[in-house]
Amino acid sequence: MMVSNSISDSIILWDGSMASKQSNGLDTLARVLRDARNNSNIILSFSKASTVRFLGRKITDLIVKQRPPCLLEIDEQMLSIRTKNLRLLGKIFVAKLSDRGYTFRLDIDKEMPKEIQMLAVQRLLGNDLIFQGYPETLRLAHIFSTFTASDVIGIQRFITREYGLKVVTLPSIRKALFGPFGTGGAGD
Predict the structure, then answer these.
(1) Given Cys at both, which of 15, 45, 122, 181 links 107, Cβ 3.0 to 4.6 Å?
(2) Helix/strand/coil percentages in the chain, nearest 5
């Protein structure tokens, strides 16, 4: 949230959508978008999965066969009833940004003029690598913001020594019932 206040004339990439069912989450989201606009920033929000459907089909399936770069604007009036319970602060697009890349839901602040929205996507394409249809900057942010197993062990060890806490491992019912065959690929 601080980024929208601390920089200007920039593209800010988010993971997720610009939608909320809760009023308190909506207020925070609206404030961040307003702060971004006030500093001449624009936020592009990418969703890897979306529950938004059009005529029963996932919106991300609508442009799979199109040549990239391709954006499909989704009109709010066309969305399923379940989706209408959400408060949308972003204009929804389906984006296919590279050959052999995936399609993603892309939300862009609906208060921004259409020309600015399109210019932001063009600038993203011109300034960032697009890996499998996804901005490399956002991909790297995901990679560097997760903890490895070694990180978790190190943090647990620090906490136990520094604060005298005991790390309690909860039993896994799946592991107890199914042994190594019940992990479902999770590796627990």
Answers:
(1) 45
(2) 40, 20, 35
For the segment 13-64, what is each residue's pLDDT rounded down to a tens digit? 999 999 887 666 778 899 999 999 999 999 999 998 888 888 888 899 999 9
Domains of the chain: which residue ranges? Answer: 3-144, 149-182
Q: How much is the pTM?
A: 0.78
- The answer to whether 78 and 51 are in contact (CB under 8 A) is no
DSSP conformation class of 100: T
Backbone angles phi, psi at 79, to 5 degrees: -80, 160
Residue 146, token pair as written in the block: 């997760």
CA-based angle 169:174:178, to the nearest 5? 125
Q: Residue 80 and residue 84: Cα distance in Å, rounded?
A: 7
